[in-house]
Design a protein that fits this description.
With 520 residues, the chain is mainly α. It has 20 helices and four strands. The N and C termini lie far apart (55 Å).
Length: 520
Amino acid sequence: MDGGNVQIFISMALYMAVVIGIGLYYAKRASESSDNYLIGGRSLNPWVTAMGAEASDMSGWLLMGLPGVAYFYGFSDAAWTAIGLGIGTYLNWLFVAQRLRKYSHLAGDAITIPDFFSNRFKEEKKVLMTIAALFILVFFSVYAASCFVTVGKLFNTLFGIKYVYMMIAGALFVIFYTFIGGFLAESASDFMQGIIMIFALTAVLIAGIFAAGGISAIIENAKAIPGFFDFFGIAQPTLIDGVQQIGENGKPLFGEAGKYGLLTIISTLSWGLGYFGMPQVLLKFMAIRKPSELKLSRRIAVIWVAISLTAAVAIGMIGRVLYPDALLTQSASEKIFILMSTNFFVPLLAGVVMAGILAATISSSDSYLLIAASAFSKNIYQGIMRKEASDRAILYVSRITLIVIAIIAMIIALDENSVIFTVVSFAWAGFGATFGPIMLFSLFWKRVTRSGAIAGMLAGGGMVFIWKLLLKPLGGVFGIYELFPAFVTSCIVIMIVSLLSKEPSQEIQDEFELVKGYDC
């Protein structure tokens, strides 16, 4: 390890020490009760709620996956995805946040998403809760794996140490501080990490603009690549065995620009639908101290997201202009942020900037592990297996489950050629289609029934697998992102089954009406 890498390592080590310090600070409070460990006793302030929700949501794909898409395929694919995410963020905060905060408190003081669904429909046999918990366990294992892939790629690129070793080291770090600090440590560190992420993105963006000769020079060079700067077209790298070819002039080869039609736009915009079902975001809504403070949180979150997504897309495009032949596979293209950071800044500052990637990864993986652990300990262990389990037992099982899920995620992440954006897109679709429709119907339609909720969750989650594995390979209209058809299928199934089944009890309907004027 040379002197420059030593400085980078020092910067990142200091950052990691701060994160561990946060975990230790909250360790005692987290161990007081499962409520504190899993949802922080509903005590978050507006700033921590906003920054925590968005930092845990965006993960490492914001600094690696999304710039990688822009680097490899150009403006359209990354931009339309970012637009969909921006719209989804705003609508989720506007319509879901306050309603869920009130309803989750009124409906049995639910502290997990499966808890809320189960309490919302007053179920005696915890079928709905079990299904929700199992889906969380499956998709969050995949999600956590994407974070571990990010850490492995980051440290492998920086220090040249074998990917697998770095991936495991990063995973152990996340496990340690989440294990001891719980939700409060996760939320507090997410707030700090949200600041680091936006600092890192803006710093690299500004440095990149200057290095490339200004915005006009960037646009001119980007337009020289067919489809790269088109809003309704897409660049087509010339690939052989997944590797972009280099021409005789030393420049990477591209084919004719591809078309970016309405179906593809719908596909990428549909990323925004995922927000209505993201447990890591929804749980932050439930944890704020006062529903009235969510208005301020919404403004903070939307501004953060708009700046971050814009910067991430721009960084990928600037990276292609500056380093056209440096990263020749889609997996390698996700390292463009690292490449730019190490070339633009002195090592010590580069370490601070790249701590943004580590921050993004940690802020997401800790949320994923904690929510998955709570799904098992609170909803399966206490809800089904041992209903009389003590609070201390729930805490113990939560921490053991956290370790088990992390191990599964590490096994999934062993493949260093995994494309982060692809891994995240599948898990995002899974949550969006499984929980998004029923969350909206639960909050805003009094006639929805438990049978409709169960059928809708199974239909949405199942369709993600069916579409991704069986239909999408057929191409054509089936090439659309699996979230959209799965989301629509779930909505249709919820409506049909609810209308065909007996209407909810008067108790459920009265509670639904009570939420409208409820202030907790």
